[in-house]
## 1
Amino acid sequence: MRTSPPIERLVAALRRLPGIGEKSAARLSFHLLSASDAQVAELADAIARLKKEIVLGGALSPIDGIGPEELRAAELEARVGRGGVREVILATNPTAEGDATAHYLAERLHPSGVRVTRIACGMPLGGDLEYADHVTVGRSLENRRELG
């Protein structure tokens, strides 16, 4: 069964998203077709603003060609510089790229005087020490807190 070109375009675009196959993309497309103009406009606006308004948009990864210039660190600095920001909490992955990104941003933000922290990483709730790698256990020890 052939559908109209606008639906085919939307299905093709949605299929590029992770975890979205042909049927899911078609289901979403037909749902959007029956949604109100306001709902569709709200979704389109949220998607369009996503890349513009996110603070970083990635992590340093020289092997993938992502250097400091590709991050939105200047925008983050400007936002902090406008005032009203007491703390920047970095939620980077616990990888070499995430570590490098967190350290890079901390260095850039240090002159502003804003508190820069990073989310803790370590053993997951319900995790078993027997199966944890040495890096995870090490980070768990580094991020430990006083009890009581």
## 2
Amino acid sequence: MAECAAITRNGRPCKGLVRPGSDHCPAHDPARADARRRAASKAARSKPGGESGALKDQLKKLAEDILARRVEPKAGAVVTQIANAYTRLLEFEKKFKEQEEFEARIAALEEEVRRKWESRNT
């Protein structure tokens, strides 16, 4: 297989392998620019910190309010139980999303293997 025609950020030739009929690896293929942009945007959205950071801040404030006697300890315990359930839900959603993405990647790889197999056997 041939190597990619692109030049990396450090000025060196890319060593990525190209598909037949292309001069660029998938990471540099101009035809895949939109797909790369969508993937990068999706990756940025999936980074931890958003909801979990807000939940952490709420729990910290709750602890302070309980210690300052602005919130009853029993009420704080119930809120903490709700926060735990919410945390488990966030973990489930993340695992579910990862599973969906993994299945999509496997399906794409299977399709690629099938196409290559068919092209070699025709």
## 3
Amino acid sequence: MNVSIQKYLNQFLSDKLSLRISTLKFYPVGGGSINETCQVIVNDQTKFFLKVNSATKYPNLFRREKRGIEFLKDQKIFRIPSVIAHDEIDNYQVLLLDWIEGGLKTERFWGKFGEQLAALHQITNTYFGFEEDNYM
């Protein structure tokens, strides 16, 4: 992980979340087609999900993603991670989220997922699309 981003996270987590940091570890995870994605583990216990990409290539990507995440969270249909931080460091932008541990994808899981997805699609608006352009 980029040294500037490591310093930023160390300072941010210390100042804003009052975490006394002795170790900060980064483990790459899949799922990021245009982003570098990793699990961040603080002091071998507190976990976060971190996304990093180019601030110049995809301007405001994470600011807009933050708004979309907050919209989904406000619907109270799915369990959605909280946005801990989003910022620009050097030529990078970062989005730090709560870590949600994955579970087994059982038949019950898929049934509940389908019901929740259907409920999400019942939300209507007076116009098509989201309230701002984004990268979806």
